[in-house]
Design a protein that fits this description.
The complex is a heterodimer.
Chain A (H helix, E strand, L loop, with lengths): L3 H9 L12 E3 L11 E2 L6 E8 L8 E7 L2 E7 L12 H4 L2 H4 L9 E3 L8 E3 L2 H18 L5 E5 L4 H15 L4 E2 L2 H4 L1 H8 L7 E3 L6 E5 L10 H15 L2 E6 L4 H5 L2 E4 L5 H14 L6 H6 L2 E2 L8 H12 L4 H8 L3 H14 L3 E4 L1 H4 L4 H14 L9 E3 L41 H7 L7 E5 L3 H4 L3 H9 L6 E6 L11 E4 L8 E3 L10 E4 L12 H11 L9 H11 L1 H6 L1 H8 L1 E2 L17 H4 L4 E4 L4 E4 L8 H11 L7 E6 L2 E3 L13 E2 L3 H5 L12 H4 L5 E7 L13 H6 L5 E3 L1 H6 L7 E6 L2 E9 L7 E5 L9 H4 L47 E6 L1
Parallel strand pairs in A: 8-9, 8-17, 11-12, 11-15, 12-13, 14-27, 17-18, 18-19, 28-32, 29-31
Antiparallel strand pairs in A: 2-3, 3-4, 4-5, 6-7, 6-19, 10-16, 20-21, 21-22, 23-24, 24-25, 25-26, 28-33, 29-32, 30-31, 30-33
Chain B lengths: L17 H23 L4 H7 L2 H9 L6 H5 L2 H16 L10 H4 L10 H12 L2 E3 L10 H20 L3 H33 L3 H22 L1
Helix pairs in contact in B: 1-8, 8-9, 9-10
Classes of the chains: A alpha/beta, B mainly alpha.
Chain lengths: 843, 224
């Protein structure tokens, strides 16, 4: 056998002269001492520690490497070993260095002195704070009214979400839990739930040949921002992939597209319907589209033939000609046709969309029409297309075994009838519902990483409701920073920013292979801040309902042991060292709907076949007591029957199909929705004009909001490096519209909506369509620290020399949200950010 | 590793004197240098004659390395010509070649020539204090250059051992281990297996397998 000694013999043999004169490498200097991969600061010589963690500047949550020197975070970079982000880190993520060192961050629990919003605070101990909070919670619990504890979160994901929601709140017994999804893209998710089931579309740019974009600003923002956008740049640079973007504004995404097609706001639906028309009338569905037709539901009855489906679709979409769409949208008919052809012929093409298309009155059918266009061209769940999301499946400690049946106040879905199916709630209407009171009011309103005042529309009303102790008796806010909502709280419980917290993370992987990753503190929590996961464990003890978990770190560490693939890799110790993990043998998941089920999977005692829909479902999972009851009521009408979904019969096969979520959809890709028809709305994607746009006067404009690449939502302007780059939000207005109103660049202007008016600055630019005025919502803070608003937070410190260098002092922008009503899409409850009709005049 | 620089021999626990360790390191360097040469260019007649020398042939036999009938029997000029054709087809001929570059071969990589790994490797040489000849037409992550780099490190290690500089010798071992772990060791087996499977010449098959096994053994040795 070959062993070490023998090889050396080979080298020792005199005939071997090695490279002898043909070497290409030569020693230029002495070999430096081996520092074991450690990093040292060039200036100070201090050793830097590189700590793998995860960003949370935005929901994409890219893995990162956080560099710590002398106990301070000095740099954040991408994680090269991540298959999601491949080492890329955007400006926002790098700006995360400013989070821990923000001189205005809240370091200790605070209790208000005086009236709400007066701005007077005293520091209290955690004991005092939690005893008061626990006291109020206990009162409600003992009265048998746990539902009057409302927990409303903005940014809460992964392990924090599970510990807080699935363990703590479930143990307490309240189901009055609000999120923020409806102000983001809740409507997009609902539309997907009515078409392909579980929400989230991921974009396979690595394998695509063409990208068609309606209203997404993927190069500047997005829920899977960097993992997708850097792949798109690579696709464009290396494979000359074209992207055509329909947008009312020349965002940086549009600017990097091959083509900008300006469009009238809220008319994307017309254009997409016309594109479907082109695909059908020119038979561009032949090939992959036709193959996919088997899995499409295009008629009321479940078992139509492909011919019947095509006939039904052609009949419905015939009226949506490109000429018709051109009149509505302002996009030339020839352009609609050529782009439809280019997309259909790309094979594969990737169809992307976000708020620009969806945050409208007709957003629901806009997303459904997009799904239809992708489906008919065979670009669903295929390499290069719009795919079902793949993410890691963490197991975690469940806490107490016997949890009470949760009670809830019905105030998260808006007023009855305001939306037919708000599967992702109407968070922007929660305060209105509290004001109204018909469905009850919470006694304790606790928010986590959420700023209802700033993030929703109708700012003034939000403030008025929260200030009113008769409407909101107890208002507790969990936050690292003194934002506009925290300013109105009774007690502020300070959490450290993400740079000092622990989590396991689970965001979607655009390579269809799940990546497990973690977040760990780069430095220990500053001052008296505590990871809220630790706080809920503490609260539970004080409430006499211990969770059996002492801290978030324990929760995460045990999750690593409970998740087999992570335990095998080395558990929490491995994850702390490496930050990321994926199964090297995993194959990317595409076409999951085509998996054929074996008879033993659907021929079970607890599984029934629903003849109406062709669905096999497990009635026990839907809490139905007997087979007879299940068959009598049927799949569609049984509450939560979707939870028991097993498979879909199509012809003589049973497929895993498109698994439903939230509503009892069949396993088909439903272009035709019986569920929608039964709710009284058209079952196939149908044109729906926006009411207020039908009544616009010749001087009216439509207000649209948007994000910059270097900021996120409401919560990054405290990051000085980011805010130095962009700190104001002048209103973008087209030169033609500006001239009509006598406005030149930099003028002070008044923007008026039915709700009121704001005064702001004009930015005259051709980078925005006629008929539109665009204002970013990041700016216009009146709290959130000195970098954001020039206002020092209570307890703010002066130990930051850059506080003397705020050269943009006083120029912090004007918030547009006071102009925007909290108004939902009538089907899915999505906040209609992009519909507001305004008048603009020079001051 | 003991404090006065003596290394423990893997199997039986006995220590070797420093000079013997230095000799071993030199031998490793020469073997690596030879392998680098064989992957850099078609073998010259001179080289083939050296390889045919009795002493070396005996070692090959001990190692069960059979470079083939043709290697033993053909006139050296004809052999050189034959191997030149095979070398060209294996590593140079468009449509046939198996690219001997880390950036192309590393599993999980992009499969690009002059890809990201090329830069990482070039940076590695530089960080370790080495300069790459600007006139070479080869990419920095060519197998023959990566082998050459480890060969240089082995030579340096030998020099340090002879100068009683055990600390630097240990550092150099760290560099070797690290370079194999981060770079060469990640793709050598995959690549050399491809070569062994594709080649018609026993010569190249045996050299590929020899190189493969040697590198695997090196990694194991450095990991002890």
């Amino acid at each position: 056998m070959l062993n070490r000694r023998n090889f050396i013999k080979l080298g020792a043999a005199s005939a071997v002269t090695g490279l002898s004169g043909t070497a290409v490498l030569s020693q230029a200097r002495s070999i430096p001492a081996w520092n074991g991969g450690r990093d040292f600061s060039r200036e100070t010589g201090l050793e830097r520690k590189a700590i793998p963690s995860a960003c949370l500047q935005c929901v994409t949550r890219c893995p990162n490497i956080t560099f710590v020197e002398g106990g301070r975070i000095v740099k954040i970079e991408g994680q090269p070993n991540s298959i999601r982000s491949e080492g890329v880190m955007c400006a926002k993520g790098q700006g995360g260095v400013n989070q821990s060192n923000d001189p205005d961050r809240i370091l200790y629990p605070m209790k208000r002195v005086g009236a709400r919003g007066e701005g007077k605070w005293k520091r209290i101990s955690w004991d005092e704070a939690l005893n008061e909070v626990a006291g109020e919670l206990k009162k409600l619990h003992d009265k048998g009214e746990p539902e009057k504890f409302m927990f409303h979160y903005g940014r809460m994901k992964a392990s924090t979400s599970k510990l807080v929601k699935s363990v703590f709140l479930a143990t307490y017994g309240t189901g009055t839990i609000g999120n923020h999804t409806s102000i983001c893209e809740g409507g997009k998710w609902v539309a997907q739930e009515f078409t392909w089931g579980g929400h989230y579309d991921t974009w396979d740019f690595d394998n695509t040949r063409f990208v068609l974009n309606f209203g997404s600003n993927v190069f500047e923002a997005g829920t899977n921002h960097i993992p997708t956008s850097h792949r798109l740049i690579r696709a464009m640079a290396e494979r000359s992939v074209r992207m055509v973007t329909f947008d009312v504004r020349l965002s940086n995404t549009t600017a990097k597209s091959s083509e900008w097609v300006p469009i009238k706001p809220g008319t994307d639906l017309a254009v997409i319907l016309a594109m479907v028309n082109v695909v059908l009338s020119e038979e561009l569905y032949l090939g992959a589209g036709e193959e996919f037709l088997t899995f499409i539901k295009a008629t009321r009855k479940a078992d139509a033939t492909n011919e019947e489906k095509l006939a039904a679709l052609k009949k419905h979409f015939a009226k949506y000609s490109p000429q018709w769409a051109a009149r509505i949208s302002g996009v030339p008919a020839a352009k609609i046709v050529s782009v439809a052809r280019e997309f259909a012929n790309a094979k594969p093409g990737c169809l992307i969309s976000y708020r620009g298309a969806v945050a409208h009155y007709n957003g629901h059918d806009t997303e459904r029409a997009l799904q239809t266009l992708a489906a008919l061209t065979g670009n669903i769940d295929n390499p290069g297309g719009r795919c079902k999301a793949v993410g890691p499946k963490w197991h975690y400690p469940k806490g107490p075994k016997n949890k009470p049946k949760a009670r809830k106040l019905d105030i998260v879905n808006g007023p009855k009838g305001a939306a037919l199916s708000p599967n992702h709630h109407m968070s922007h209407n929660v305060l209105k519902m509290i004001k109204d009171g018909s469905n009850g009011r919470p006694e304790v309103y606790m928010t986590y990483m959420y700023t209802p005042v700033y993030a929703n529309g109708e700012t003034e009303e939000n403030i008025a409701i929260l200030k009113d102790e008769s409407l909101v008796p107890h208002f507790y806010v969990v936050t690292p920073f003194y934002d506009e909502s925290a300013a109105l709280a009774d007690i502020i419980l300070p959490e450290p920013p993400y740079t000092e917290r622990t989590d396991w993370e689970d965001m979607v992987s655009p390579v269809q292979i799940p990546e497990y990753y973690i977040r760990q503190p780069a430095v220990k929590p500053m001052g008296g801040t505590r990871d809220f996961g630790d706080v809920v464990c503490d609260l539970a003890e004080r409430l006499g309902m211990p969770l059996g978990i002492k801290s978030k770190e324990e929760f995460v560490s045990r999750s690593c042991d409970l998740t087999p693939i992570i335990k095998a890799a080395g558990g929490w110790e491995y994850m702390k060292k490496h930050g990321v993990y994926h199964d090297p043998k995993a194959e990317p998941k595409y076409f999951t709907y085509r998996k054929e089920l074996k008879p033993e999977q659907y021929e079970k005692d607890s599984v029934v076949f629903d003849a109406d829909t062709g669905v096999y479902w497990d009635f026990r999972k839907a809490r139905v007591k007997s087979r007879e009851e299940a068959l009598a009521n049927g799949y569609t009408k049984t509450k939560h029957a979707y939870k028991g979904y097993v498979g879909q019969r199509i012809g003589d096969k049973v497929y895993s199909g498109f698994k439903p979520d939230k509503v009892n959809k069949s396993g088909y890709f439903e272009v035709y929705s019986n569920l929608m028809e039964d709710l009284g709305v058209p079952p196939l994607p149908t044109w729906l004009p926006i009411p207020e746009h039908q009544k616009m006067g010749p001087d009216d404009l439509v207000l649209t909001t948007f994000k910059f690449a270097t900021q996120i939502h409401s919560r990054s302007p405290n990051c000085k490096y980011l805010t130095e780059v962009v700190h104001k939000n002048p209103a973008w207005i087209n030169p033609v519209e500006a001239q009509k109103r006598g406005i030149v660049d930099g003028d002070k202007i008044r923007v008026q909506s039915p709700l009121g008016e704001i005064e702001t600055e004009a930015k005259v630019t051709p980078a925005v369509n006629l008929g539109v005025i665009a204002i970013s919502h990041h700016f216009g803070h009146w709290e959130y620290g000195r970098y954001a608003s020039d206002k020092k937070a209570p307890g703010g410190r002066d130990n930051d020399p850059d506080l003397n260098r705020i050269w943009w002092k006083g120029d912090h922008g004007t918030h547009p949200n006071p102009l925007i009503p909290n108004s939902p899409d009538p089907f899915n409850g999505q906040q209609r950010w992009m519909d507001t009709v305004v008048q603009v005049s020079k001051i | 590793m003991t404090e006065n620089g003596k290394l423990k021999e893997g199997g039986n626990g006995a220590t070797l004197p420093v000079s013997a360790l230095a000799d071993e390191a030199n031998s490793r360097a020469r073997l690596l240098g030879l392998l680098a040469l064989l992957f850099r260019d078609q073998p010259s007649s001179t080289l083939l004659e050296q390889l045919r020398e009795t002493e070396l042939q005996a070692v090959f036999a001990e190692l069960d390395v059979d470079l083939g009938e043709d290697f033993r029997k053909l006139p050296v000029g004809q052999l050189a010509e034959q191997l030149a054709v095979e070398f060209t087809e294996l590593f140079l001929l468009p449509g046939y070649l198996i690219s001997p570059h880390e950036s192309v071969q590393v599993p999980g990589g992009k499969g690009l020539l002059r890809g990201p790994e090329t830069t990482y490797v070039a940076n590695y040489y530089r960080a370790a204090g080495f300069k790459l000849d600007e006139t070479t037409p080869l990419e920095p992550d060519h197998l023959s250059i990566e082998l050459e780099f480890i060969a240089h490190l082995a030579t340096l290690e030998a020099d340090c051992l002879r100068q009683q500089d055990s600390a630097t010798a240990q550092d150099i071992r760290c560099y070797q281990k690290d370079f194999l772990q981060r770079h060469l060791g990640r793709w050598s087996t995959v690549f050399l297996n491809k070569v062994a499977d594709a080649t018609k010449e026993p010569f190249y098959r045996e050299i590929a397998l020899l190189t493969r096994d040697f590198l695997v053994q090196e990694q194991a040795r450095l990991n002890e």
